[in-house]
Amino acid sequence: MKKPIVILISLLLMGFVVFRVFQNYKAKKDARNRPTPVKVLPVQVISPELRMINEKIRATGNLLPESEITIYSKVSGKVLVNRVHLGDRVRPGDVVAVVNRDEIGYDYKSYEVRSDVKGLVSRVMQNPGAAVGPSVPLMILVEVDTVKAVAAVDEMKIRFVKIGEAAQVLLQAYPGEAFPARVTAISPVGNPLNRTVDIEATVPNPQHRLKPGMYAEVELNASQRQALLLPIGAVTERGGQKYVFLAKEGRADMVPVDTGTLVGDRMEIVRGLAGGETVVADGADKLNNKDHIRIIPR
């Protein structure tokens, strides 16, 4: 009596197991055959803009005085007094210092050190009592009615720089202000270490606001030309190559491009587009080739 019951229970368990295996198989088969939902990304689009641009050259450097002269005493002795001080204006013939050249057994008159040039005193190097002579500097005079910005231009752009062309000088000391200048010299040699060539831009400085030694940036116009422009966000870089995405029949079509000058928030497209294409305007870094997209109004 017990044996048939055991057999019956075993058959019921086997049937249940077979039923569950069949159910799982059917569910997996249905899942494989069920179409996967397509992810559609909303995007905004734009056409490349053709615009005239001024390509600029920017070079950094420092301000230098128009001239810098070191004054020496022509005789040996000790400084009795300095007649001028830091910031004083000096004219040719002015006495700038008096040197006592008395020696034991001799009675010399004090010697007046005179300037041969005009300028402002930028540094007094000897105090009264200091021993001086023809090889010891007394003070330095600078002329700053005009100053020179000496800056290093990339050697690949030096061909665009011409003597006499207009420039402007930008200073961290005066943010938002540009000082008109003119290129007055170009070095005949380049720097082999950083591949630059020094240029000199002369800046009027009637109020002496520009101080030699200040950090300066010289800006020049390299060329004016038409350029095809896209928002920066429309361009992405992958593996060292730049790409944009064209909107074509509901898909994002990845196209390689070459870029040029950055103009504000726009990037110049040098190669890869002809103009008139429908380009994904932003978020190119989040797209992949052939992604499904949906265009939404800007």
The main pleated sheet reads as: 6 strands, antiparallel, barrel
Identify the CATH class of the largest domain: Mainly Beta
Helix content: 10-25%
Taking Cα atoms only, what radius of gyration do you get, to the nearest Å?
A: 39 Å
DSSP summary: helix tally: 1
Tell me, what's the shape? elongated
Query: Number of folding domains?
Result: 3
Structural class: mainly beta
Quaternary form: single chain
Order of helices and strands: HEEEEEEEEEEEEEEEEEEEE
Please report the total strand number as a whole number. Answer: 20
CATH superfamily of the largest domain: Efflux pump adaptor protein, beta barrel domain
Structure in words:
With 298 residues, the protein is mainly β. The chain has 3 domains: 83 residues, conserved putative lor/sdh protein from methanococcus maripaludis s2 fold (Beta Barrel); 89 residues, Elongation Factor Tu (Ef-tu), domain 3 (Beta Barrel), CATH 2.40.30; 62 residues, RNA polymerase II/Efflux pump adaptor protein, barrel-sandwich hybrid domain (OB fold (Dihydrolipoamide Acetyltransferase, E2P), Beta Barrel), CATH 2.40.50. It contains 1 helix and 20 strands. Strands 3-10-13-12-11-14 form a 6-stranded antiparallel barrel. Strands 7-6-4-9 form a 4-stranded antiparallel β-sheet, with no helix packed on it. It is elongated and about 145 Å long. The model has no long low-confidence stretch (mean pLDDT 88).
Overview features:
elongated; OB fold (Dihydrolipoamide Acetyltransferase, E2P); 1 helix; Elongation Factor Tu (Ef-tu), domain 3; six-stranded antiparallel barrel; 51% strand; single chain; conserved putative lor/sdh protein from methanococcus maripaludis s2 fold; mainly beta; 11% helix; 298 residues; 20 strands; four-stranded antiparallel β-sheet
